Model the fold of this input.
Amino acid sequence: MDKNQDTTRQEFADGADVPKQSFPARLRRSCVRFWWLYFFSFVALVLVIVLPIVYVGYPTLAQKTINRSAITLNSYAIRHPTPSSFDLGIDYTILSNSSNHANLDSYNASLYLPASENSFVTFEVPAVKSGKATDVSIDQNVTIDLPEELVKFCMIALESDTYDLNVRGRGGLKLGSLPRTSVKYNKTVQSKGLNKLKGFNITRFSLLQDTGPFNANAEGQVMIPNPSEITLDAGNVTATMRVADTLIGNVTLPDLTLKPGNETYTMYATTNQTAVGGLLQQSAYRCGVLPLDVTPDQSVYDGQMIPYLTTALRAATLRVDLDVGPALAEAGFGALIPDDCR
Ligand SMILES: *[C@@H]1O[C@H](CO)[C@@H](O)[C@H](O)[C@H]1NC(C)=O
Ligand SMILES: *[C@@H]1O[C@H](CO)[C@@H](O)[C@H](O)[C@H]1NC(C)=O
Ligand SMILES: *[C@@H]1O[C@H](CO)[C@@H](O)[C@H](O)[C@H]1NC(C)=O
Ligand SMILES: *[C@@H]1O[C@H](CO)[C@@H](O)[C@H](O)[C@H]1NC(C)=O
Ligand SMILES: *[C@@H]1O[C@H](CO)[C@@H](O)[C@H](O)[C@H]1NC(C)=O
Ligand SMILES: *[C@@H]1O[C@H](CO)[C@@H](O)[C@H](O)[C@H]1NC(C)=O
Ligand SMILES: *[C@@H]1O[C@H](CO)[C@@H](O)[C@H](O)[C@H]1NC(C)=O
Ligand SMILES: *[C@@H]1O[C@H](CO)[C@@H](O)[C@H](O)[C@H]1NC(C)=O
Ligand SMILES: *[C@@H]1O[C@H](CO)[C@@H](O)[C@H](O)[C@H]1NC(C)=O
Ligand SMILES: *[C@@H]1O[C@H](CO)[C@@H](O)[C@H](O)[C@H]1NC(C)=O
Done:
């Protein structure tokens, strides 16, 4: 201890003409002389750390936040269809567990069938601030991107119990005061389908005294089960009715707007009385229960046949047992049904 102090004192004494400076003093001197070097090194270091965060880490984080979010479809609608456009309504919720509440810019989203490279429709998603659950509501007149893809979509939606839809797009994302970055959207959404309209039924059927709308000689009600969340304007839907390949007439569902749930709709029918009378002569149908095959023919909206709805509907054949007994009794033809049937 003492020796050290002595040495120090000795050094000061020896080097009196070229004084050695203490470290802080030397640092100060160096700083004054080389301030610019330190300054630029500091700036470079900051850039080396900050730039990758802002331009690599942050976009990756932003993309990860989007990737980890999910979408649930609450309801959707196809309204006012024309052969090349329709009003698309979609209500969905973006779910995110991220604590980053980003501002998502408006962007164009396209709907695809999974694994398809071609979209069938594109719509503009509004700008939203994302949270834990963010509701988004869209109602837009959209033009059809590719009719063939829309037909496929309509057929899948009609025939499936559940099906997947892919939503893709690219848009801006802004987090706090960080610069805007671009993110890719690619989400698969599961939706309930119409399940082949299973459970379709004719719940009321009466003969008309006078000719009704659409040349009808009968009218009634049909129940169309719609387990999906879709509301669909199908316009005037016509179908043919056959019993064991014998054409017995046609039906029209006027101004059909298919709603979710088990709803009933008005129907008008034009039946060939001669053909029905002939069937009732056959032992299989003598009690008046006709196993009808109802095959949709077309969907006409505002005087225009809607090709995508027509093609999808034509693929469906609905079997329903129609008991014409009550309608005949009501019209005073009860005698056509033998007593032993009751
Ligand atoms: C986001 O998901 C896509 C696939 O949809 C993947 O290619 C990409 O690497 C993911 N990005 C990040 C940052 O996780
Ligand atoms: C959020 O976290 C909950 C609970 O861990 C989980 O059930 C849910 O799937 C997560 N949601 C998303 C969008 O990751
Ligand atoms: C969406 O696409 C339309 C037509 O290409 C364009 O006019 C519109 O600016 C786009 N919107 C956004 C938010 O990119
Ligand atoms: C949607 O736009 C198309 C083409 O511009 C038009 O023909 C159609 O009438 C529009 N539909 C509605 C419901 O406004
Ligand atoms: C979208 O994501 C799916 C599955 O995550 C992937 O298979 C597909 O290649 C992606 N498509 C695009 C265009 O990124
Ligand atoms: C609709 O009817 C079907 C049978 O036709 C039944 O299974 C289903 O539970 C009904 N749904 C509702 C919401 O009543
Ligand atoms: C169809 O409706 C009729 C009349 O309401 C009813 O008697 C019949 O049981 C129904 N059929 C089915 C399969 O629900
Ligand atoms: C239904 O059949 C009647 C009689 O054959 C016919 O006048 C009518 O135009 C047909 N309706 C449809 C929509 O095919
Ligand atoms: C009605 O059915 C009978 C017997 O099947 C048939 O001969 C006749 O041509 C049909 N009438 C019409 C208008 O289709
Ligand atoms: C259905 O047909 C009737 C009678 O032809 C017509 O007045 C009505 O506008 C049509 N509905 C639609 C949605 O086209």
About this structure: The chain is about 30% helix and 45% strand.
